[in-house]
Amino acid sequence: MNLFYIKLLDSFKSKKIIKVISGLETFNIGKIYKMLKAADIAQASYIDLPANIKIISFLKKVTNLPLCVSSIDPLELYNCVMNGANIVEIGNFDIFYEKQINFSAFDILELAIETRKLVYSKDICVTIPHILNLYEQSYLAKKLEKLGINFLQTEGLHWDIDNSYIAVHNYKYDMISKSCHIASPTLSSTYLVSSSVNIPVIASSKINCISSSVAFSNGASGIGIKSAIYHRTTIYQMSLYLSEIFYMTDVFIKLHYKPQLICGINKNKIRIQKQIVY
Asked: Does residue 1 sit within a domain?
């Protein structure tokens, strides 16, 4: 794993990356500050922000949390790095899909190449567009890895579950199925992309405290959280929900990476060994 920002290395290795996403369209500094403080209190890994020099300059004065900036403009990303951004990301395409603007694998590769030329000493994350079919997603992920991109992010479709579908599947009472269904596009992409590359993958879009553990079991090294906390009104409510996600992450790790005692007989002695079971 090749990361410039060493402070995140252990979190990536232990699959404990939790990033808070403010969104490309969010320029309300009051809203961003609330999400930042909630992320600080809950000890999130980092926060993802729009690539705006004024926002970055202000936040650098009030937090030590790593700042990631997202854009589809390599020059914007470069300018933010010059003003203190720690990580850059090509992605968060939601606002473009609403305008019927889509990105091909070729478009993403061109943006990645240009960004790496400008930002050569910072970590770069690239979102794999979910509008691409699974073969194209795998192909793009492999190409980005070869370009030296540090980690990838998956996304889901910008849609809501049809009310009749909820009624048929009784989702009103089955929150586990509902959460997994809403996040299913990004969960499937996460499984595919993480199986295709040797760099970390972050699962984002419609992830909540229930589906987060599914994302990790599908190969994610981290998750991105936005919608689950965006509409909560107070810093306390936001930070409390993030803490729930941290708790679910710890539970998943303890269940899937737990030590077991294995007995081995060596002549007349019983030898006890500890082995980590994956």
From this structure: no
Is residue 10 included in any domain, yes or no? yes
Question: What is the pTM for the complete model shown?
Answer: 0.84
Burial grade of 219 (CB within 10 A; 0-12, 13-18, 19 or more): buried
176-183 — which CB contacts under 8 Å span 24+ positions? 176/210, 179/208, 179/210, 179/211, 180/210, 180/211, 180/214, 182/156, 182/206, 182/211, 183/156, 183/207, 183/208, 183/211, 183/214, 183/215
Pinpoint the alpha helices (H) of the chain. 9-13, 29-42, 53-59, 74-82, 94-97, 105-118, 134-146, 163-168, 175-196, 211-217, 227-230, 235-256
| Residues 5-40: tens digit of each pLDDT | 988 998 998 888 999 999 878 888 999 999 999 999
CATH number at residue 243: 3.20.20.70
C-alpha–C-alpha distance, residues 151 and 200, integer Å: 5
Domain housing 219: 6-276
Report residue 15: phi and psi, to 5°: 60, 50
Q: Name the token pair of 199.
A: 């760099």
Burial 118-147 (b: 16+ CB within 10 A, else e): ebeebbbbbbbbbebeeeebbebbebbbee
Neighbours of 258 (CB within 10 A): 10
Question: pLDDT tens, 140-158?
Answer: 999 999 999 999 999 986 5
Q: Quote the number of domains for the chain.
A: 1
pLDDT at 53 over 90: yes
User: How far is 69 from 60, CA to CA, in rounded Å?
Assistant: 13
Structure tokens belonging to residue 101: 């603007």
